[in-house]
Amino acid sequence: MTMGSRSVKTVNYILVTLVSLAMIYPVLWMISSSLKNGPEVFSTASSLIPHNPQWQNYAEGWKGFAGISFSTFFKNSLIVVIISTIGSVVSSTLIAYGFARIRFVGRKFWFVCMMLTMMLPPEIVMIPQYIMFNKMGFLNTFLPLILPTFFGTPFFVFLIMQFIRSIPKDLEEAAMIDGCTRFTAFVRVLVPMIVPAMVTCAIFSFYWRWEEFMGPLIYLQDPKKYTVALAIKMFSDPDAVSNWGAMFAMSVASLIPVLVVFFFFQRYVVEGITTGGLKG
Amino acid sequence: MLATKTDTIAAPAPRVRSRRKNNNLAGYLFILPFVIGFIGLTLFPTAASLYLSFTDYNMLGSPHWVGVDNFRQMFTSDDKYWQSVRVTVQYVVTAVPVRLVCALLIAMLLDRITRGAGFFRTVLYVPSLIGGSVAVSVMWKQLFSDKGAINALLTAVGLHPLPWLGDPHLALWTLVLLAGWQFGSPMLIFLAGLKNIPRELYEAASVDGANGWQKFVRVTIPMLTPVILFNVVMQVIQAFLAFTPAYIISNGHGDPLDGTLLYVLYLFRNAFEFFKMGYASAMAWVLLAFIALCTALIFRSSSYWVHYESESE
Questions:
Q1: Helical H runs in chain B?
Q2: CA of A199 vs chain B CAs: smallest distance (Å)
Q3: In B74-88, which positions are buried (b, 16+ CB within 10 angstroms) versus exposed (e)?
Q4: A contact residues 244-273, partner B, Cβ 8 Å cutoff
Q5: Residue B272 to residues B57, B214, B280, Cα–Cα distance (Å)
Q6: A70-99 residues touching B, CB cutoff 8 A
Q7: What's the confidence (pLDDT) of residue B8?
Q8: What is the pLDDT of residue A60?
Q9: pLDDT tens string B55-79
Q10: Do B46 and A125 touch (CB under 8 A)?
Q11: B83: closest CA among B248, B285, B269, B274?
């Protein structure tokens, strides 16, 4: 019996290793291509080991295009991502507290409105929002990308609400009896306890905003305003690419922030997906 | 709990009334961001979108009422529209099963592993983590290009290279494969579901002489059906709304020969390339109706195949 279960175990490990290798292959291919010189990318396409690692591809790629370097694109992305993440986590926490802890007239109605918002495909509101932001003169600014996050993100509201419900009310009530206002009780007593949920939301917000493509594509026209996602698209334009190695180098660079955040906060990501049904 | 009960009994007391008013004020202050956002960024745009879908509007001048013309044109005379519907349906009915089958099989494999499970889970989640990004779509396109790594591998094992991006059907398959590769989120959800299946069920099945396949069909699958339902609904909705990979891989046009012209891509082109805002809005409403219909059908069918533990007891 031990022999049998051990061999089954070995087979499982061999299988999972093979599957993992196959799945990670494209990523390794991208990294190896980023270290190959231009023609080598396709002449030795199936080989993962670059002949002569071309680290200068990264420096070359960083120069960007049209005289704008990737420093600008990364700075733009960071501005958009950081502000909109703060906006959506703070507003979602407030909203979640309101829904989870306070019984007010119309609570159910607004909650249903939020569920409906979540089910509405963004394509429905995309066009009127574009027209609206256009009329307000927000085209070619970061405002259409940042502003909507300050009104709460339904997925995050749900996640934080679930978390708040698992915490007994007693502590806040005690604080309020001791003379705290509701708001100070919320900030001083509850918020420190729901930090894990807020971190999960912040991480997902970071991913979604960092990868967001359609918004920047619609709203940003001046290459100086491009986010990294949009810049990679322009950089990879078949007519414009002269150095494939540099193009892959910048693709890899654009993924580094996402990977770094993941490796540090993995636990929160797994929790967010399995408990909140957030898409990764 | 006790306090709220006495509140309702002693309703007329003035102090309680003022506390209720207080609650109303506090409640609305906390959810104020949502109320403003809902009215300004959801309700008003939704109404505007519905109105625009009955108009002809190109951003210059004002919308011009055309009744149901947009819908009539869509259904009767726009061949590209039907092409985009065909491509999207093909995409949804292939990409969703491919992704979910990968997710389930790999979750089962991970479930059997003890040491190093965390490491493999991380590695297998990486494709999904970075999958939505432009960089990955760009990489995928080069991977499947004529001289890319996939064709090089095919040649290496003695097969013919394929024109992945030149043939309309194969081009759609590259998108399906890209979706299948990103099985991470449903995999994690399946994995959590598998951990929740009581071990006793498997032991009981073993005692009854069930083999591995029978245990899979009679225990694992029925116990997972609620999770499968959740994953199917989420993935179908996501697949209908796919945009970035199709945009990148098809140069923003649905190339070749509209073979990758997914619905949202065609909607996007109508709105922001041809500035047919009315027509694009009408398309968005038909998409919403279609997604709602599919979701409703899946839920309706669920009473036949989803197994809830509480029912059986």
A1: 2-9, 14-37, 44-52, 69-76, 79-111, 117-131, 134-143, 149-156, 168-181, 184-195, 199-207, 212-215, 221-240, 244-249, 263-272, 277-305, 309-312
A2: 17
A3: beeebeebebbbebb
A4: 244, 247-248, 250-252, 254-255, 258-259, 262-263, 266, 269-270, 273
A5: 12, 53, 9
A6: 91, 94-95, 97-99
A7: 45
A8: 85
A9: 999 888 888 899 888 999 999 988 8
A10: yes
A11: B269
Decide if B102 contacts A2 (C-beta within 8 A): no
Residues 6+ apart with CB under 8 A from B208: none
Q: Which residues of B touch A230 (CB under 8 A)?
A: 134
Chain A residues near residue B106 by CB distance under 8 angstroms: 16, 19
From the list B176, B153, B175, the residue with the least C-alpha distance to B101 is: B176
Size of interface A-B (CB pairs under 8 A): 252
Statement: A64-276 belongs to CATH 1.10.3720.10: yes
Q: What was the pLDDT predicted at B5?
A: 41
Q: Where are the domains of chain A?
A: 2-60, 64-276
The whole domain housing B189 covers: 76-312
Question: Are B98 and B172 within one domain?
Answer: yes
Best residue in B31, B187, B299 to probe A by mutation, most A CBs within 10 Å?
Answer: B31
Give the residue-averaged pLDDT of B22-26: 86
> What pLDDT shows up at residue B30?
93
Residues of A in contact with B41 (CB under 8 A): 125, 129, 148, 151
Select from B35, B42, B227 the residue whose CB has the most chain A CBs within 10 Å, as the one to mutate to test that interface. Answer: B42
Instruction: Verify whether the Cβ–Cβ distance B284 to A126 is below 8 Å.
Output: yes
A91 and B288: CB-CB below 8 Å? no
Residues B145 and B284 both lie in one domain? yes
| Mean pLDDT of all residues in B186-198 | 89
Examine the pLDDT at A203 and tell me if it is beyond 80: yes
Rounded to whole angstroms, how far apart are CA atoms B215 and B226?
18
Amino acid at B198: P
Q: Which residue has the tokens 């892959």?
A: A248
Residue B207 — φ and ψ, nearest 5°?
Answer: -60, -40
Q: Is the Cβ of A14 closer than 8 Å to some Cβ of chain B?
A: no
Q: Is residue B59 part of a domain?
A: no
Looking at residue A245, its pLDDT comes to 84
Evaluate whether ipTM surpasses 0.90: no
